[in-house]
Amino acid sequence: MWRREKDRRSKNISREVPGLQESYIKRDSWTKLNVRPAKVMQQEQVLAELAQYAAPIGQQPPSDAETTMMTRDYLRAASLLFENGVLSHEVINSTHCQVLQNIREGYQFFEDWLDTLLDENAQQKETEFLLTSPRERRFISWQTWDLLRVMYFGLTGLAESFLSRHPGFFLSPLRLNGSAVETLFSQFKARAGGKLTSLNYETSLRSYICKKNLAPKAVHHSGRDYRNVHLKLPDAPLIRKKDM
Questions:
Q1: Which uninterrupted H or E stretch holds 114?
Q2: What angle do CA 140, 141, 144 make, to 5 degrees?
Q3: Tens digits of residue pLDDT in 181-228
Q4: How far apart are CA 189 and CA 33, in angstroms?
Q5: Which phi and psi angles does 128 have, rounded to 5°?
């Protein structure tokens, strides 16, 4: 893969990335630095090359074979969850369709990953694991995991509710475009003064929950029918700081 990319660059040939050549996609700096590399690394060819490198036929596995396979499993889970799930061009027409199966399988990888870390922490095999600590590097960041769960339970819950009440219709995950997560993220970011980090995420979450519980419910069209299903948010009780 490295030799192929080096040859491509020497010939000044642009990289072909499926899904990024559509006219409606704005190729800004964010797309070039984040979206494009992420989509490249989730392609089946890249996953196959990583597996071939870690387990070459008839040769001794390299010293980094274990970490390479872990990277491959992570990228495959991300591909199932996003590329072939939430951002899929396919439709969701049943609770057992391939799109929902991909989403469930990809999400289960992160659940198993977290369970492994918690088990090791309980058996004291590793140093203490703190999920909400900004210094924790053994798992994805807390705010990413929190919003990932909101997206997963929100989409799967919506699909089950919608399909049970509207048989014969379907959902397009790409057109839903993660609006529930983006809505929460935008409010969290606004409460953080425009810069949401792992340090102020908890404060933004508590502020959102307090406002949701205290403010009267507004009546608007988006609160009707299946859209009024409550999003699953983790409990964040207010804890009074002890006097120093």
A1: helix 98-122
A2: 90
A3: 666 777 788 888 888 887 888 888 888 888 777 765 554 444 444 344
A4: 21
A5: -55, 130
